[in-house]
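Could you join me in thinking about how sequence relates to backbone shape in a protein? Would you write everything just below, so we can both look at the same thing?
***
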Amino acid sequence: MKKVTIIISILFTNFIISQVKFEANVSKETLGINENLRVDFKMNKDGDNFTPPNFSGFEVVGGPNQSVSNSWINGVRSFSKTYTYFLTPIKRGRFKIGQASIEIEGDIYKTSTVDVLVTEAVSSSLSPNNPDSIVSDDLELIAEVSNRSPYLNEPISVVYKLLFSPKINVTNLSEVDAPDFKNFWSQNIKIPRIEINRTSHNGKSYNYVTWKKMLLYPQKEGDIDINPLTLEVTIDVPTSRRDFFGNVIYSQTSNKVSSKKVKIITKPFPEKNKPIEFNGAVGDFKIFAESNRSELSANESFQVELKISGSGNLKLFSIPDLVVPSSLEKYDPEFNENVKVGLYGMNGSISNTYTIVPQFQGKYPIPSTRFVYFNPLEKKYLKISTEELIINILDGPKSSVVTNNDDSNVSSKNILSSKGQFNFIELETNLFKIIKKQSVIDQYFQYIIIFIFFSLIFVVLALRFFFLKDSKSIDNNKIANKVAIRSLENAKKYLGEKELFYETLETCITGFLITKFNFKNTDLVTDSIKQKLTKIGVDKNTIRDLLKILNTCQYFKFTPNLEFDTSNDYKKSVELIMKLQNFKL
């Protein structure tokens, strides 16, 4: 029985040893984007036709290296063969190391997949004597922040500079991972060309290049982290060897370098003396209101431009609404933006241009418009206002409610059109009672007359409502067409200047949509445009062409180096507006 047990044990051991093992091992399952990953494909029996996975999400920087171990211990043979790869991640995310395959004794074996998580850059864990660590000591990517404790919507700049020792040469740079600037409004500031300059950092002399400039406006109170930026740097490193002429021989290598995480502490707006009208405007501004006409006739139109200019977050707040008397018919405004974005913030102006049509003659005041903003330098709220405008309507129908202009005070008053206009009314009567027997018809005749009278009033009011609606629609169409024609003529002047052309063309199309179809500024997005134009019967091809030209305007405004065809885009825009003129709400 004892011998049988020994034999069974030996057979069981041989069975276990004879099993083929083929597995994949990684040096770490979580790594920073600036770290490398080692992957070992290990087998306990020799095989042929080894096929590695495609390593999606990684770049192979070393391997395959092959190693074989063959040993005998207590008469038992131990064999292992390993294929090793060194990988560097391309981007952040969760990736799978796919299945590798090999043929062993006529059978195909595959490894299991391995999950690997690539995170943001981490502090280097290389040993001081590692060659890559030596190169890293000569490289540093720093993030220079203009202000680490701004107010909400106060601009800050971040400039990324790559510092490198004068003894090494940087031959190529590429961005591996960039921060998403979550909780910031961000704008990349274009750098015309990369230039090498000299600076001193931590007591050492460096060459440096400015790689990236960002303008940020914090949109959240409290702590906000700016994650590291990671660059792939190709470097020529001097070796101890020299060529025939005694010049140092350089060896080329690549390395990843990351900036440090930056913490921004955003201060909230002061609650003390905070005006109700404050809508988040931060900076230093002025406000103006200007009319293109001060005297005209009823049913003629004039325009009032309400403009805010200065420096601050001009793209991040809305202009106050213009208030006009009820006797003036105000149309939705045409928005104009002339804002330049630089490293130190936004400068320029934004404006709303209102088309207004008076109904009756008289003098009408357009009250001053108040605007409130927060000045971070003075740390207080400031209130500014436009001057009051007086519009004199010379001809047209008279209204029982007219306006008077008394020096500094303009108010609406109900006044009589003339004296003694009610003198025709008798104040005394000479009546006597008439007694007459009424029939049944006579008794109900007065009710019939009253019913007919009120029915006629209802019909007249209904007809007047529909005629006025059609009249307003016609006026709206005329105004929209005039706005479009004037804007297209302006765009045509800039056919040779790409940025001005596409900016003017975009303003033309959006202004046409706002005036003709009552779009709001918030409706000028793809889904809203599709929905509203489809509802009034515009065909899909016209909507598609309209969205395409709007996207082209946005695209070419911010991509100055690409080829463009302003003449063709102008021609398409004219055709689109001609088509859309045939549709009504």
Notes: Residues 27 and 575 are 62 Å apart (CA to CA). The chain has four domains: 2-119, 131-266, 283-414, 470-580. Residues 440-492 form the longest helix (53 residues). The helical segments are 2-18, 131-137, 440-492, 498-517, 526-535, 540-557, 566-580.
